[in-house]
Write a structure and sequence with these properties.
It contains 3 helices and 8 strands. It is mainly beta. It is globular and about 40 Å long. Strands 1, 2, 3, 4, 5, 6, 7 and 8 form an 8-stranded antiparallel beta sheet that branches.
Length: 167
């Protein structure tokens, strides 16, 4: 079995390369590509986005053994994931960030997103299929919301634009 040399993170909000937080809180990037995942995107009152994906779109949920998680996800046949389009989801647009296979590669984004395996968080880190512009589907980490606050607003076109109050 060949181990993957890199891993991917799908970013759809403040960690995109056109947003101010990507330099401070984003992972070390080897490359970035336009990509999409299937789900629903919401904006909080504060202006930040939240992604919801269906349970059937989740390949794996992060555990303490991140390398085992990633290696398992890369062996998973992404074609076996049920078609989420039947679940009233839409395409969520963002970037696929290629990052090295390193122990602390996701430490900065985990901290920024408030994700921890030890404490409750609004986010959990999961692996989902991400579609690239050329049609390839790859496994990617993504921060998905555990619940949507009642005051959050759906972003129908699946693309979050940073509000002025966050710039």
């Amino acid at each position: 079995m060949n181990s993957p040399k890199n891993q991917y993170l799908f970013v759809y909000g403040t960690l995109r390369s056109d947003q101010p937080e990507h330099r401070t809180h984003g992972p070390r990037s080897l490359s970035r590509s336009i990509a999409s995942v299937t789900g629903k995107l919401y904006e909080l009152e504060e202006g930040y986005p939240l992604l919801i994906v269906s349970a059937t779109s989740i390949v794996l949920t992060a555990s303490r053994d991140w390398l085992r998680d990633w290696n398992q996800a890369t062996m998973f046949d992404l074609a076996t994931i049920p078609n989420p389009s039947k679940e009233r989801s839409s395409r969520i647009w963002g970037e696929l960030v290629e990052i090295p296979i390193e122990q602390d590669a996701l430490t900065k984004p985990d901290r920024w997103e408030g994700f921890s395996l030890d404490h409750p968080s609004i986010y959990r880190r999961v692996i989902v299929p991400a579609a690239l512009a050329d049609g390839r589907i790859v496994a990617a980490w993504a921060y998905v919301a555990t619940q949507i606050p009642a005051t959050a607003k759906l972003i129908p076109d699946g693309f979050w634009e940073c509000p002025k109050k966050l710039r």
